[in-house]
Amino acid sequence: MKNNLYSKLSFAVIGAGSGGKAIAGYLALKGYTVNLYNRSIERIKDIKQKGYINLTGCFEGRGPLNLVTNNIERAIKNVDVIMVVLPASAHKFVANKIAPIVTSNQYIVLNPGRTGGALEFKNIISKHNPIKEVCIVEAQTLLFACRELHDVNVKIFGKKNEVKVSALPAIKTNEFIGRINKVFPEFTASKNVLETSFNNIGAMLHPIPTILNCGRIENTHGSFQYYIDGVTPSIASVIEQADYERLMIARKLKVKAISLKEWLSYTYDAHGKTLCEALMNTHGYHGISAPPNMQTRYVFEDVPQSLVPISDMGKHLCINTPTIDSIIQLASIIHNTDYFKYGRKIADMGLDRLSTVDEIIDYVITGQIDTSEEGVVA
Amino acid sequence: MKNNLYSKLSFAVIGAGSGGKAIAGYLALKGYTVNLYNRSIERIKDIKQKGYINLTGCFEGRGPLNLVTNNIERAIKNVDVIMVVLPASAHKFVANKIAPIVTSNQYIVLNPGRTGGALEFKNIISKHNPIKEVCIVEAQTLLFACRELHDVNVKIFGKKNEVKVSALPAIKTNEFIGRINKVFPEFTASKNVLETSFNNIGAMLHPIPTILNCGRIENTHGSFQYYIDGVTPSIASVIEQADYERLMIARKLKVKAISLKEWLSYTYDAHGKTLCEALMNTHGYHGISAPPNMQTRYVFEDVPQSLVPISDMGKHLCINTPTIDSIIQLASIIHNTDYFKYGRKIADMGLDRLSTVDEIIDYVITGQIDTSEEGVVA
């Protein structure tokens, strides 16, 4: 590990799905040292054998990898940045794996964290070692739009111009951005991880149209356009109500969250009188198919790691989220899993001891729980 | 009004939708005196002009009417039986209209009552006159499968072999069945109105597939088979969970309620390993189209007058109904109406002062609220 600020950063990429392959290939193509880890060796055996990832699309060429492994300890040893590019449902597993071995001068970047990803990660690491200082960075969305192809190939369709990130603790955000800037100039500072977590737009866009098109998905195996045919005025009204609940919580947490409609306008330059109209005017959504069945990440990732933490934060702050809760309930029945129970909750995020908004904000800024009052009482 | 038990009964039919026209035409064809009322004169102007209803299908011929009117007082004056054949959402309006004029020797028959129809009706009449004794009869389902045609014509596709009914108070059920038997031998006694109310199968079959196919209904204007394409395994699992909540409440109320799957087997001789399979094997459901848009009785009748009273009874008895509540919440957003607030609740049914199951059961049997304990305290 190079502690010199001016040396070239080295990376471990955790997860070899399409997103992980794209980031690993991109970094390697740019000449960085990259270790690629995946839990199952099967998924990376071609890459391991050939030693590189081949990019097509916006970026073209071979990215040679330093190490391809299913041994996480070897993957992260001595690297500067650990990029976790996994469905949020895998965060808990990875956090438990790396907790004993991560060092205080490594950055852990969740790309993305969904809602409460960095908080859960830090909480798990703290349970292993309460005094270990770690810097966990949460990205609000994925950097690349990409799709994995056969063998060692991955196609990058697009790269976002800007991705908001925040460190936990937030006092380290600028330091991180300074160090990563040459690699990812797209990363810009968000106020704190509450801001990245409560601007989780996927939480609004994924589960609701899936659940409210559940009959059509199963009856037609998803042969319709997910957004264009699937988001009708009634579905848009349910999304808007869930979005309103999310925004109420964000406001209480004193972070700037933008509505889905504002986000479409900002991100895709898509406008409309109604949310439904704006979605229909989102060029990039045309041609995107619905999932072929209900075993989709739109539910099994976005319900437990996005809607449940939003709902549970609502409960913690006495803000009702009946619309979000309805979707969690229906998803729980459809997947025969109690997502309210197994999803990411306040306790998983280590916030159960913090009863006021100011205590929560203080924690995400400093990474420390202020125990002074407890001290006074003792 | 003929008080002689052996004279021929006379009827008022309230509501001239397809069900009301079918019942009025059927009774008139059988030679009974029938007055037909409808709130809007427009709907009955052809019948008023010609003076009869013409039946086709299972029953054929002209049924001459005694009176066709939009004056409810004239319609019900001196008749023995007032048949209310309306969407349950209109019960409140009709109850308020007839409360001052109905007499204690008239039967009011709700055909059907959905959940809590008779209780709400009686509660409204009691508010007008606390000591007036009335006998309100709740039918569990519609007697006829029918569709109105142009002008004075209505087609009856089928007549059920059995329709369960109960009087409120239940001590009058047998007397009613004895008197109506020659007219409607299909009516058989149910234990009490809790049994007819909590065997409301439409509550399970109507709102859930509509809400969970909401995208497809709006995107295709309902061009798919409602049950056959619309009820997929995931939707069936949501229906089963809601059905389980309904059965838990019925059990607590000590009434026999049968599951939807048992009901399909009993009513249509349709079987299957799963509920989904049994629905697919229900011959009568093939060819039934989905509603063309979300402004459908499947939602605006079945949510406020079926799901809300079930949910509110659950709350009253400390039984959670999270699945039913999810559907009410989504329906409320889609219809921009707070159905939790405006639907039929415990207070509307006059049960808010009755805190135990035994008090509720005593009330539906006797029609009297036992105030002896209050008397003792005073």
Automatic annotation (TrEMBL), chains A, B:
Single GO biological process annotation from the record: glycerol-3-phosphate catabolic process
Gene Ontology MF terms in the entry: NAD binding; oxidoreductase activity, acting on the CH-OH group of donors, NAD or NADP as acceptor
Key words, A-Z: Oxidoreductase
One protein family per Pfam: NAD_Gly3P_dh_N
Domain spans labelled Opine dehydrogenase: 191-334
Listed InterPro entries: 6-PGluconate_DH-like_C_sf, 6PGD_dom2, G3P_DH_NAD-dep_N, NAD(P)-bd_dom_sf, Opine/Lysopine_DH, Opine_DH
Domain Glycerol-3-phosphate dehydrogenase NAD-dependent N-terminal residue range list: 12-109
Domain of life: Bacteria
Keyword Aminoacyl-tRNA synthetase appears in the UniProt entry: no
Protein name: Opine dehydrogenase
Source organism of this protein record: Maledivibacter halophilus
Source species taxonomy: Bacteria, Bacillati, Bacillota, Clostridia, Peptostreptococcales
